[in-house]
Write a structure and sequence with these properties.
Elements lengths: L1 E3 L21 E10 L3 E4 L2 E3 L3 E3 L3 E5 L24 E2 L2 E5 L2 E4 L2 E3 L4 E13 L8 H10 L7 H8 L5 H4 L6 E2 L5 E5 L8 E7 L5 E8 L10 H9 L3 E2 L4 E2 L4 H7 L7 E11 L5 E18 H10 L12 H26 L5 H22 L8 E6 L5 E7 L3 H23 L6 E3 L5 H13 L5 H8 L3 H11 L5 H10 L5 E3 L23 H19 L1 H11 L7 H36 L5 E10 L2 E6 L5 E5 L8 E4 L4 E4 L5 E3 L3 E10 L4 E6 L2
Helix pairs in contact: 1-16, 2-4, 6-7, 6-8, 8-9, 10-11, 10-13, 11-12, 12-13, 14-15
Amino acid sequence: MRRVGTLGLVAALAAILVSPLPAHAEDASGAVTYNAGNGYSFEKLSHPTVGTSQPDGIVDYQGNGAVAVPGADGNTANNEGDRGQSYTWAAASYGDWLYVGTCYAAMGNTLTLMNSTLGERRIGGDDAPDLGVQYVMARYGYTDTYPEAALAEAEALSLDVASALKDPLRRDLRDRFVITVDPVDARDFDDAISLERTPEGGYKLGVHIADVSHYVAWDGHIDLEARHRTTSVYLADRVLPMLPERLSNDLCSLRPDEDRLAFTVDIELDAQGRVRHYDPYPSVIRSRVRMDYDGAEALLVRAGAVEYSVLEGAAEDVAAVEASREEALERGLACEETARGHNVDLGDFLVAANELAELRRRIRRARGSVDFDTAEIRALLDEDGVPVQIVARERSCATSLIEEAMLLANECVAEWLADRDIEACYRVHDDPSPDSLHGAAVALAQLGIIDDRRAAGIALGSPDELQAAVDAAAGTANAPLVNTLLLRSMQRALYKPRNEGHFALAAPCYCHFTSPIRRYPDLVVHRVLKLQLAYERLGGKDALVRTPRLIGKGRESLPRILPQICRACSDAERAADAASHATQKIKIAQYYEDRLGERYAGSISWVSSMGLFVRLDLTQVEGLVSIKSLGNEWFEFDEDALTLTGADTGTRYELGQRVIIEVSRVNTTRGHLDFRLIH
């Protein structure tokens, strides 16, 4: 256990930093000084563009040192060992300009901004809704522009179905009934499905993915930029696409009633959902219906295949959900009418797809797959980027229907490649570490959520016990806590050149094949798959002709740099997830900025030396009750049991404990929510 005081120990230092942005560069200098007992003072910064102004503060810093943000008490974390070091990736705001520059931590208590070239970006005033998002973009080096050379290359591309069908590998599937199912607000559609029942009572599932590799040649301008980005980044108020919009929203978007080039995996399954055969190949498809998840779920409910959850809560909230369901049904019925024009009963199609998804889910569970029950908390924004509602996107029968189809296609493609010992970007999820599992098991057992037998099984890494714990908590107040603790005990999935299996899916082989519009590893998989198909079906001579465009030749070819690509994709994915999460926190903080002083019920979702994290019942949003606000006493932090206990009063705070809090402070720049404990 660690002894934690309520008063922050301040001794100071921090850094602003640098990465010149392309817009407008000038020389500037200034300093940030720490005065013992009085917090930080910021010297005025002299700059040719904005004149002399007082900085608003150092808003963020990524690295091993401290972060200085002027607040009510001026206190900050400290790392004495950082003195005399220079840093990168921090930012400061001066009025409505965002600066990114080099800083130097001097040997005293002064942080000196060196005479150096500063990048700057116009971001609007302090009340601009996207101010915090711009900070995050600067921190991670993101830009919402695309290189001109890549854009020009994209604009020169066109769809030529007749020419594409001259490729003997490609098959014409335009007479097949194909649909897309995506979020209602989706802009790009990179996956579609087809489904037929077989005479034997089984299924023929077709998974059709946009054929990005047809358009993006190895080492071209688009490819090099996509390889640099490796992923699309989904921020709270915008998408930073991996590919130019000419591709992601046009040529490679499987829009209804338009011919599109695709990469298809046909999968034949028996009546129990077991795979009997699969066949990957390039294709031409024509999507007939564009559905959204809510509309698909509404049709499934109407068909009696599933039921809506029972609505609880305030009358106005229930009415809003009921109205939303009615709107979804109207959209679903419109799609049903369109499908009827192609002699397809869309309700029957979706019921069969739902049946197959359930069969596949049972098969995964039987082999040891673990499905965590998580909700994605998002802020819905108005047209000006102002948050108007907090919603939790949860898994539904419609999302599972598509998810199971995509998981199966990914497994089939990975197995196809691994059986041939072909290197690609495999998705690898290692077994969780025993220490992490033990900590989660102990915490859940001490809370009485699981018994000792289940705790022992979890500590040993039993997938069955992990899934049993998640299932037992489903629909209860403990569900968020159980899923959070067990998820934190898992390793992070990575990309690797060789297949090593996937723990959480209990899949012997796994890769990402289904989203080449937004993930570079999927594009790599498409390329090596297409090349191997050419070699096996058309011969080595034909494959040799295709090699330069698909994987390149020489020292900079895909086989030579694949390990570096896998590492870069893994790292970039982690950064993109962090940036997305950071911007959602910013928008959520903006939402609660107008709700200061309001009180809400919630549960303690995490305990640390910082204090108590509380998840609100109404929105599932989390905020911090800082340790210094709990009372003027020392608190014992038990790292195993995750509790805080007052040394004087014996007051104990633990996971799952019900509380009432008051929203006491928000920091919309950093996305922080501070709560005050009421009882």
